[in-house]
Amino acid sequence: MAKRNPPSLALFIVMMMAAGAGGGEIGMNWGRKTSHRMLTSMVADILLQNGIRNLKIFSHEVQAMEAFSGTGISLTVTLPTAGITLTSLNSPGYSRYWLNDHARVFRNMNINVTNVHIGTDEMRHDNPTYYTTCVMALGYLQYGIKMNGHHYLSATVVHYVDMLNPLTLPSQAEFKEIYRDSVAQLLKAINGTRSRFAVSIIPFQLIIDYDLDVEFGFMDNTSNFTITDANTGLIYTNAFQFIYDSYLAAITKLGATPEIEIEVSKIGWPTDGHPLATLSNAERFYKGILPHIKSNKGTPLKPGASIDAYILNIADENMQNIQDGGPYQRHWGIYKSNGESKFKIDLSGEGRDIYPTVARGIVSMPKRWCVFNGDKSNLTRVKEQFDFVCQKADCTSLSPGGSCGNLNFEQNISYAFNNYFQMRAQYNKNGSSSSCDFNGLGTVVTGDPSVGICEFMVEIL
């Protein structure tokens, strides 16, 4: 592939300043890897009540989409490997079929699908073949968009910090060599289109991966911890701007033009499963980042930029895969599964000290819990049941530093038993109470066994 000579960073800054206009938009992600979830109509209601007009939904099934009909909410749908193979999308014929069978159908149902994101999290684990396939699929999809009159639709691929070389300074940021040609191809494909360069920015991840001062994760700048880029003289006081400008410098080196905008497809702070993943830290993070998004302050390398960002996530995902990440990967939610907000957050971006509007119409299961009956006559049996439960249900809050990380032996077992019990809707399909049997070790109680900040949940219907 012939290499293009990219514009200098200084010239890029000037051109980007001239391009910046309008306020940044705040959207939300709705990951659906949960045993229980709010109805789609409830999610649509939450968004409308809180003034959110942009949603990225990890599904494109009609049942998950129809509640957004007539709401005016702009939807981004995803094309992961599950449900549709990217290799089958790699043909003009199939891309036209997919657009007609989905985008046009949704449009006819008054469902406002405006964006398609190709691929999922596989790029986080050095999978250049998968990424190349995504870029090829993007090319065919964009061809179908152009040739079939889907002028309202854009398509792109989401990028992750893991695709960059280890970060040192933004000006030195580059994509790993295994990705460079394909990223350059993508930049060429989206140049001159409505599509944007989508990135994931998780300051929390940068803090723990690089063992940085946690204060660098927030935008209220209460500490003296800063990073100065010796090559540009730019000073970074927070991780968000540091990561954003690293992406910006990396795509500039691959020939990105000033017309290409960066969209933050995922941004968030987890609330459990790690010592730094707390409700207070999440509240502080959003109180700084959301007003910054709405202010058009941009970043040191792109001052005055309008940055659109999608919050990760509406609710926790108790079935999210954590094998390649930490326990906190299941705890990005703003809301609990019952529609109650976890902490104060002003989704308008005005920085007010308020709780978001809660979901309406939620119905919880009966107030009963499954707990350990205290029989320790055979600890091997107890351990076997605990291990079995935590393979099936979510025990990540029991992790060191988690909200339930300080429970005693009996409470640990009870917490695990109850999570399995609730995940199975309290009783199994034939109506028996065997979902709280655990080889004779479980019992159902009607008194809340929660301990301090450790909540023993009752799930929703």
From TrEMBL:
It comes from the Eukaryota. It holds the Pfam family Glyco_hydro_17. One of its GO terms (molecular function) is hydrolase activity, hydrolyzing O-glycosyl compounds. Keywords: Disulfide bond, Glycosidase, Hydrolase, Signal. PANTHER family: GLUCAN ENDO-1,3-BETA-GLUCOSIDASE BG1-RELATED-RELATED. Residues 1-23 form the signal peptide. This is X8 domain-containing protein. Residues 368-456 form the X8 domain. GO terms for biological process: carbohydrate metabolic process. Belongs to the glycosyl hydrolase 17 family.
